[in-house]
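Fold this sequence, please.
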Amino acid sequence: MSGRTVVTGGAGFIGTNLSHRLLTEGREVVVVDDLSRPGVERNVRFLRERHRGVRIVEASVTDRSALRAALQGAEQVFHFAAQVAVTSSLTDPVHDFDVNLGGTVALLEELRRMDTPPALLFTSTNKVYGRLGDVPIVDRRDRYEPLERSVARHGIGEDRPLQFCSPYGCSKGGADQYVLDYAESFGLPATVFRMSCIYGPHQCGNEDQGWVAHFLMRCMAGQPITIYGDGRQVRDVLFVEDLLDAMVLATEHISALSGQAFNMGGGPRRTISLLELVDLIEALEHRRPEIEFGPWRVGDQRWYVSDTRRFAGITGWSPAVGVDEGVERLHAWLQRDRGAVPVREAR
């Protein structure tokens, strides 16, 4: 990876970690972020304190003039800027549409006008597959498991039909498809990661997004954790450093990946239910978090695990950090930064 890198949403959780890695390697990084999410000001401070050369552009991804200026000389673009919460999309679907779909198309148009468009990686979501209500599951005490052996062994593959659910799923799914189409129709070197649950340092977790960090932060603050549903829902979780490895590989293999979407997460070897995470937190904190239960939310999946074999087969990628190790590392980071990471309720 060389040349200027533009990271939209670069003051967010993944953007901060990626920007920090690239800047540490001596890369030129331009962060584009409207700084609207609570907690990102700490990420901005972290980047500025560690890297004097970082350039931070405070602007919305819908601002095409700001995008045009930031993209000058870019060789890689990581597009993370988004409205990230299902509940917020239900409250204000127009804003969700404007940022997630409108902002992505604005970025694609600015890339299309460039003589040599840079490689683009867009982060989509597993919500493009809907609730997965047709995947038979069984209750195994503290977790759900799929009945089909092949699904349990490998997870959900990219051949799964799309079934957008919630305004958030529609806006991210629409953006997902626009990125793939611009690669096909206009030859942009672009690929898509359909993300499962990513966690790690610099995450401003809340009830809507970043639930691993949110659960830890609530317990460390002595506050109750609300679980929507019964807590047996299962996700594959991926530590952020493993994700960054995948992202770097994606740009290095962009000619082979362009025009394709890849499911990205921890896979079948890195799964955890919400109740199992509570048990893990109890072991780390030496006390049981107080649990409150709420109703299932729109679009909730009982079980989702990414099948990452296609991406791994092309790039050679494999995650290295297990669930216990990753949660312990996040817990240790939160302990070091406890005074700087307040617990916030979802809006």
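Residues 34 and 60 are 5 Å apart (CA to CA). The first helix runs from residue 13 to 24.
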